[in-house]
Amino acid sequence: MSSTISDPASDGVVRAADGTPLKQRLNRALRREKLRSFLLILPLLAFIVLSFIMPIADMLFRSVENQIVEETIPLTVVALKEWDPASGEAPGEEVFAAFHADFVQAFKDKKHTRLGLRLNYDEPGMSGLFRKTGRPSTKMQPPYKEAFIKVDEDWGTVETWAVIKQASPAYTDGYFLNAVDAHRTAKGIEMVPENERIYLFLFGRTMFLSIVITMSCLLLGYPIAFLLASLPLRSSNMLMILVLLPFWTSLLVRTSAWKVLLQQQGVVNDFLVWIGLVNDADRLIMINNQFGTIVAMTHILLPFMILPLFSVMKTISPNYVRAAKSLGANDWTAFWKVYFPQSIPGIGAGAILVFILSIGYYITPELVGGTSGIFISNRIAYHISTSLNWGLAAALGTILLALVMLLFYVYDKIVGIDNVKLG
C or N terminus of the chain, fewer CB within 10 Å? Predict the structure, then answer.
């Protein structure tokens, strides 16, 4: 012992053999251990940052980013600060002169169409107006106001310039307003006409159908998981293969199969007609609607409910139910009072898994949902790939993420996340 620790009698500090205080040596060893642990998890941390955190941060930024207007027509943005749309008149010659200088440069840089596309999100027709004015702008002579109006009368309207001024700031809340069926006018924030509201309705439909799909998966998955947990190991393994069998088939193939099964001339309708439940002239419409979405997605997500339930039920000892029966409980009482409460963690895990997966699905609703069975995720995909309105898509995605986090918080308060287990 004297070879490793020096005599502390001199100053009261315990030292190592080299004279270094023992506490300092321990702190160094602890720091090295923490550094070693950090280096071990660094690849995983980098993967999470690159594949999860950065895309979410980029989505949040795109939902408010609006720098294209300020960067493309900077002189116009400055000139429009002195113009008030409430005056009821179009801007003066100085604004049109600044806009001409900006527009000609944008046309040379081939940026005027991108700017028109951005403004077209706020006012339909702006994209065509900018394309139409592109080449004539290079031949214009003062007075520029008359020259622009000669190309198209819309340049002389207050609405056109109000849209440009409204989109001038580098950051905007316009995408979020559009995502909740609202827009900003001269009178403030107003809801769009009722016949044009779509996104709030789609959010509500997405929540409703996701809850219905989760409940249908629970109703079908609970007895299957109970059977798997109760059977001998050999039999349960064979049935588990059947549960996992859909994972071996492409999602697109499974969804397309439901189109064949549920269509009016499909297998299900043919069978119902054959047994006499349905007349041939009154075949059921089970595809391109909410029913088709619920059926197809329940089939696809059912294994995600069964697996957590099975893993939890497998840990429940049958002795508890036997003890309840020996004390006089019938089968139902023993199940409801003893077995079911112990399976709630599996229900919680399966419900969260199925709900979160279903709320973001878009392939299956797109193929079997028609116009009445699509989710908000289908509109997000549309704006990303078709309309190229990435700002609105990012705003819709951000609201959907916030909604899921809110529901997760409420679930934690009601059920408790500690009660969610996978086995």
Answer: N
